[in-house]
Design a protein that fits this description.
MetI-like fold, disordered C terminus, 85% helix, 255 residues, mainly alpha, 11 helices, globular
Length: 255
């Protein structure tokens, strides 16, 4: 039991060791705080500055959740349509891959020119970031359906709708959740990038102001909050995956 606990918490111990080495190295080398603050300075700033930071934090959370919902919804719908309509997939899929060669950070200024500084360009940025992982992962999942089971259901007279809902979609769930986990972490990054376009609040705005005033400790606070938020989103999707897959397996056993 102790070995299992140690193995599970191994990343935490490595992270703690990293912070200890960082703390000692900064103190021994007498590195200026504006250049590289010690971890204790960063954590103390996070606690002391939370009353001023939390509006920016929750603004980014709200933006990321909305963008994640829109991006994954469009991505999943696109994957379903491309799967059910092969002649469209053959024409659109290469363009889908090609679209990922356009850096979002380069596209962002154009979105401001076209749509202004409102919510729409920010939603487009997050949607583009979340769209691709879920669309590609879902398409790959649909293709992994057991051909023997598919042939059996077709021989039994199953309609295309029944084939998709009862066989292809359940088989694709692991791949879909893999795409969701990637999109969930990307949504936070997309939200921060979109806030650089001209938002009034958000972690991206907080980070920009802290960097311009040489408050490196606040920059690290923003970075750590982005990492924590990404891990939280990932964990929520992971729990949903475990619950849904377990529910599905129980349903299959009852049948």
């Amino acid at each position: 039991m102790s070995k299992r606990v140690l193995k599970r918490w191994r990343p935490i111990w490595i992270l703690l060791l990293f912070f200890i080495v960082w703390e000692i190295a900064v103190k021994q080398a007498e590195v200026p705080e504006w250049l590289l603050p010690a971890p204790t300075k960063i954590f103390s700033e996070a606690l002391a500055g939370w009353p001023h930071f939390y509006p920016d934090f929750f603004s980014t959370v709200k933006l990321a959740l909305i963008g994640f919902a829109v991006g994954t919804g469009i991505g999943l719908l696109t994957a379903v349509l491309l799967h059910l309509l092969p002649f469209i997939r053959e024409s659109v899929y290469p363009l889908l891959i090609l679209s990922q060669n356009i850096p979002i950070i380069v596209l962002a200024p154009l979105l401001v020119v076209w749509f202004g500084f409102g919510l729409l360009p920010k939603m487009i940025v997050i949607t583009l970031v979340c769209f691709f992982p879920i669309a590609v992962a879902s398409l790959d999942g649909f293709r992994q359906t057991d051909p023997e089971l598919k042939h059996y259901m077709m021989m039994a007279g199953a309609s295309k709708r029944q084939l998709f809902l009862k066989l292809e979609l359940p088989y694709a769930l692991p791949s879909i959740f893999s795409g969701l986990k990637i999109s969930a972490t990307y949504s936070v990054m997309g939200a921060v990038i979109s806030e650089w376009l001209g938002a009034k609040q958000g972690i991206g705005v907080y980070m920009t102001l802290a960097s311009s005033s040489f408050r490196t400790d606040r920059v690290f606070v923003a970075i750590l909050s982005i990492m924590a938020l990404s891990l939280l989103f990932f964990a929520v999707i992971l729990l949903a995956e475990r619950w849904l897959v377990r529910w599905q397996l129980k349903g299959d056993k009852r049948k």
